[in-house]
Amino acid sequence: MSRLTRSPAWQALASHQKRHAATTLAQLFAADASRANRFSLESGDLLLDYSKHRVDAEAMRLLAELAAQAQVPGWIGRMFAGDLINNTEARAVLHVALRFKGGAFPEGRDVTRLVHAALDRMRRFVDDAQHGTLKGADGRAITDIVNIGIGGSDLGPRMLARALRRFHKPGPRLHFVANIDPADLDATLVGLTPATTFFIVASKTFTTTETLDNAARARAWLEAALGKSGRLSAHFAAVTANASGAAALGISPERVFPVWDWVGGRYSVWSAVGLPVALTAGMDAFENLLEGARSMDAHFRSAPLELNMPVVLALLEIWCVNFLGAPSRAVIPYSEDLRDFPAYLQQLEMESNGKRIDRDGNEVDYATAPIVWGSAGTPSQHSFHQLLHQGTHLIPVDFIVIGQDGESSAAQATLAANALAQSAALAFGNPATDAPHKVLPGDRPSSTLLLKRLTPRALGELIALHEHKVFVEGVIWNLNSFDQWGVEHGKSLARTLLPKLIEGGETAALDSSTRALLARLRDRG
Ligand code: F6P
User: Fold this and answer.
1) What per-residue confidence (pLDDT) applies to 433?
2) Gyration radius from the chain CA atoms
3) Annotated catalytic residue within 101, 116, 393, 491
4) What is the distance between the alpha carbons of residues 313 and 465, in angstroms, rounded to a whole number?
5) Whether residue 53 lies in the annotated active site
6) Atom of ligand 1 nearest to the CA of 240
7) H helices then E strands: how many in the chain?
8) Residue 47, beta-bridge partner list
9) Which residue's alpha carbon is at the smallest distance from atom 10 of ligand 1?
10) In the prediction, which pLDDT does 407 show?
11) Is the pTM of this model over 0.90?
């Protein structure tokens, strides 16, 4: 048994769960008229109602004890102090510095000067783009900007650019390309004019095959229309920690925006990786996003464990995964503008905590990150909610609901009514008596996160909330949430298979399935 599963807090939680396994959510609500209030938290523009989780006050107390036992407050302090808590890569984890304001940070190693210099450069670039002074090789103003990146260099800015649609300023149109499948870039370039198209090549490492291949295709597309010329550099910027990689692609140094090794890719949207967001919503909106994150940072650093929103969300996940046996969690934003949020969370949560070796190098004997999935309501209701209500798996749901904002209040009300209906139906079921197939058993847990409005600030809070939640889970599961060794092997295997597929060659050492599929693909090629 691991130290964690042997620990007093874990054991107490396991017994508590057994003792109360038969208690229903309906009983918990009936026993406490103030349950909704008691099991809700507020921070800034966010309200978290977790009363529809299968927890009572004692479960929450024991969960907070689990967090205390794992020394969560100490780990929060270590992250904000810039300790090398990404132990397998010997790196600090300082995405919080990207939104820090006031004084040297972290103490003894001020990185904020770098951060603010980069923000100033972003602001100048955004001004140029919005005022038509960003020009292509022949002097025409840029009309379209294509962000080429993948993973953390794509999912965050893509999600935010959509989420902030209502804040978009006049200026160039924005597009995103991630897939190495040329269809992605090709479809994006249809209808775009090379002379007025600009590419941001976003890659922290500048070694990612997908991004480099797409950047090379983009250059070829420009060359085919505008000819080979040094002036093509007018059509490119890069966001990277690898300035020489960007220089090798012919991107001029003044168009290279920095990220740093102390920012993980999936935590980098607060850096120049967020440039596409600033380009569409404006730099002031980007600063508001940072401010929202900053306010969640302040809450996270100061609120007591049981009132700390990221901590509570993490503890609820641990309760569902480790004590109720939930294999996955669905995230359902009732907002078309937040449609890409589940995809963004998938990388944040599963690349961070989808791990089975703990910080001490031992295999864990408990489940770690659940499978995160989901899509926007209400279309989700007509797709997979059947399984949520009546299927055989217990799948906790995070509903995200946006408060009313005046003009669109009727539509917002419809969305909110549907979200509330779904969470109530999951919790309390439907005891239809005429036929068993109509029964909804209920007792299916969910949280509801209410955002006052979908503003840059509220989004900053929402994202930082999830970043910190992931961190707390990692601390309790004793994982390093900041590396991603699991994705490296597949990349190098693909590199060795590609020449065998194109040119043929020795395949005897391959497994018989891969060998046979390669042969079949070559025959048909
Ligand atoms: O392969 C996974 C990964 O390293 C992610 O962690 C990262 O966000 C993504 O690839 C893209 O990396 P880069 O920004 O270096 O191109």
Assistant:
1) 75
2) 25
3) 491
4) 9
5) no
6) 14
7) 21, 11
8) 42, 450
9) 151
10) 56
11) yes
